[in-house]
Amino acid sequence: MPLAVFVLGLSVFALGTSEFMITGLLPGMAADLHVSIPDAGLLISAFAVGMVVGAPLLAIGTLRLPRRRTLLVLLGVFAVTHVVGALADGYALLFATRVVAALACAGFWAVALATTIALVPVDRRGRAMAVLVGGLTVANIAGVPAGTFLGQHAGWRTAFWAVAAVTVVAIIGVALLVPETTGGAAGVRHELRLYRRGRVWLALGVIALCQAMIFAAFSYLAPLLTETDGLPAEWVPGVLALFGVGALIGISVGGRLADRRPFATLYGCLALALTALLVLALTTDALVAVAAVLAFGVAGFGANPALNLRAFQAAGDAPTLVGASTTSAFNVGNTIGPWLGGVAIDAGLGFPSVAWTGMLLGAATLAALTVAVAVQRNDDREPVAV
Prior knowledge:
Blueprint: H1 3-33, H2 37-61, H3 67-87, H4 91-119, H5 125-154, H6 156-177, H7 188-192, H8 198-218, H9 221-228, H10 236-260, H11 262-282, H12 286-302, H13 304-315, H14 319-346, H15 353-380
Helix pairs in contact: 1-2, 1-4, 1-5, 1-6, 2-4, 2-14, 3-4, 3-6, 4-5, 4-14, 5-6, 5-10, 5-13, 8-13, 8-14, 8-15, 10-11, 10-12, 10-13, 11-12, 11-13, 11-15, 13-14, 14-15
InterPro entries: MFS, MFS_dom, MFS_Efflux_Transporters, MFS_trans_sf
Protein name: MFS transporter, DHA1 family, chloramphenicol resistance protein
Keywords: Cell membrane, Membrane, Transmembrane, Transmembrane helix
């Protein structure tokens, strides 16, 4: 595996830490900025919306630019937004920095995915994308808890400074170790043709549904575990870290399997995820629930390389824009899943309802995936290995 791919994974570690650490910093940020917790929570929504909108726009805007140079500019903007955010004396300025950071993050994801694909042979793409996305997994295991710890003990601004510092290290790594590759020589109009392909829309739909399945339950794991399963509140961070360990295992194994049998990998991960969700929906035993959380982490992130690989295979010769589209699709799922889980809770169905919601979304994912298999069989006129 080229060292450059690991450098890009380090960059994703910085981006992912920033994206998710806000959850643990909300109380301190709200108190310091003199806003309510819900208002502070809008900083998370601003980032998600910026990711969904920014990925395709920046992919199109940077399509003809050299990729390494583009990556460096986007990382530079990301670092500056965190410096400005750390110095911000008001909510409005901090909100603006989160939107700009999300745009830079979205653009980086799109270009980094296309760069990773260009750096490795076709039969190693799944593993390469596992390394890239693995940076996000490690961010959830180490970066987010570390950022939360810093925020709790030294103030949330310290966490922002730390992300800026890690981003600077990533900039140096990209500058020294990532070779220059070119963007889409055929132009925007050529890449936009990918949206005429039904297989692309199916691949993106499977991504969004699968991600919504994961986050419908994951977003509410803490109250589910404590209120329903009787887990002591002080154990929750450890269980969430265990989910991250499962995610790291899943993405490592899933990356290897995706190169050989992407559809089979997706079916297997979905089966494991649905089983874990069923256990979470029915059990009231804390230890059983914890085991299910570990399995859920393995399944949820084990599917990630195959999800990305299928989108790139469907897109063919439009790698930059499909990288942006997958970024948007993942974030659509990140947005819809928690919202649907919240709707179920607000309807008075209890915290186990988020697991049932995840199962419904998982069933929809299975249906969409089965349609995708049928479409590919019809298009290729040959059996698909499942």
